[in-house]
Input
Amino acid sequence: MTNSIAEIEDADCIFVIGSNTTVAHPLVAHRVYQAKAKGAKLIVADPRRIHMTLVADLYMQQKLGSDVALLNGMMSVILANNWHNKAFVEERTEGFDKLEELLKDYSPEKVSEICGVPPEDIVKAAELYARSERSTILYAMGITQHSHGVDNVKCLANLAMLTGQIGRPSTGVNPLRGQNNVQGACDMGGLPNVYPAYQPVIDEGVKKKFEDAWQAPLSQKVGYTIMEMMHGLEDGSVKGMVIMGENPVGSDPDTNHVRHALQSAEFLVVMDIFLTDTAELAHVALPGACFAEKDGTFSNTERNVLRVRKAVDPPGEAKPDWRIICDLSTRFGLPMSYGSPEEIFQEIAKVTPSYAGLSYERLEKGGIPWPCPSADHPGTPILHKDRFTRGKGLFHAIEYRPPDELVDAEYPFQLTTGRFFPHYHTGTMTRNSPTLDREMPEGYVELHPDDARELGLKNNDRAKIVSRRGEVVSKALLTDLVEKGTIFMSFHFMEANANVLTNPALDPICKIPELKVCAVRVEKLKEPEAAVAQE
Amino acid sequence: MDVKFVRTICPYCGCGCEMLLQVLDGKAIGTVPSKTNPMNQGKLCIKGWNVHEFVHSPKRLTSPMIRKDGKLREASWDEALEFTASRLREIKEAHGGDSLAFLTSAKCTNEENYLLQKFCRVGFGTNNIDHCARL
Output
């Protein structure tokens, strides 16, 4: 996030797009409601009629994967009405001419045909966002999990820069991170192209710096992303894999392909707290400690670095993952002798400029947002205040592209995915929590009542959903939360996992898969089949 | 009876709500939101309130396991780590460091993420490390 969560409360306009905030980030949703109570206007854009739409001042139900068109439409209205922030564009940005040229082709009328939102709503959204004093954008995986995910994010950045809604309190472009420490895993260099603090592996100087710090020769070649690893396992270029605390069989698109890839590994080792579907495929499974059983730090979606503290001992023989890595590395021939997480953190601060001023002692008082370059620096709740990271903010002129897989006669429905309120990701933790399991012991597929009628499906009937990659059986729930022609499923329930169906088509730049749109068909399960499925 | 409250952070979404885990005789038995924390201000969501429940689940993995005759069977740490280290060494020697790939974790701590990428980059001379940031 460019800004902090608490600031949302004082925004004058909040634009939520591609985020089911009440379900996935309830405490952020709370701030949105607080802002509403103080008089803020709320715009929600989502293909699914999520809970947040009930309190929205304006709801736009755009078609799946049409965000670029919708956002370009809003920006063309802003320019046509001179609602943009000319001083900000002049002083802080570059590339405006190209964007201006592109937006000529995105009149609200034309955009309306692509995204299905009435032109007058696009005008209203543009006016609310641009003309409010402090407007903030909240988005999540509904924006990013597309074959044009990077385009979507760049369009949001364009919108914020065009209107100068960034670099001030209660404004900004704010991705809501879905996992407790996905920010930290990225900050720590758990990515194939960067070392800690996003220092590029292809940079000679950076490589030299880490070679000195770690006293070892390093590779200057960008590594594989998850999806490329899976392909590598299948074509034999990757032979072995080490997985810590992840369940790609459940979370990655096209489950059957992922399972096949992992089964092709000559050697697979998985560290986890449960024997997940992924761990079951391993040659060696190692028992890790959960959050309550170890010390350390998490970095939340606001870039706040927070202390995690040990409350209980791990069960049986289980050990904290940091200890497992030390032991394994030492036996491998690379001795690691850290005595505690704090010792590791001290090394992190040395090689990670954005964490340089942080220590366990300072974090004892509460979280500190990076960048925090020195011990006397208070941290940075708001990014891009006086300048952008690269100097001037760069506008990108982006054309709309349709999703990778479109509906046809054989697969006439669009499937989109997300979370249900009591569950989380592949269900490893929530389905092993009795209270949460009782709330929702089994998943369902949401479909529109008109579609259900044509298919002969009633509530609680078993539906078979088929895509080009596989098929699953799930209980039907008739609801107008989804539009006609669209169905919704989660990936919490391994026995009926949407990811068996989802499309692994990738964004060309960041390699994110298009989990949010694919083509499927829906069938009513025949009686004998239904009986088997029931068992 | 030994009761304590341990101040820590919720392991679910990216909000980073602060909570107090209620511990009775070495078991986590309850979760209370931190009232003074500026992020969650005394509130938690349904997942946060019940976070202690999975900690002592009987389904937790409690022993290292090694696959023998197609089945995962319990093993000692010594055996599991020695076997893993030697297999990783063999693959690196036979096919080079780029033939190995690592997935680090959005659920583990910064310290653990840092160590695993260091192990991958120093131990194998490869940048084949990623995690589920995109998922």
Notes: Residues 97-135 of chain B form one domain. Chain B has three helices and seven strands. Chain B touches chain A through 97 residues (CB under 8 Å).
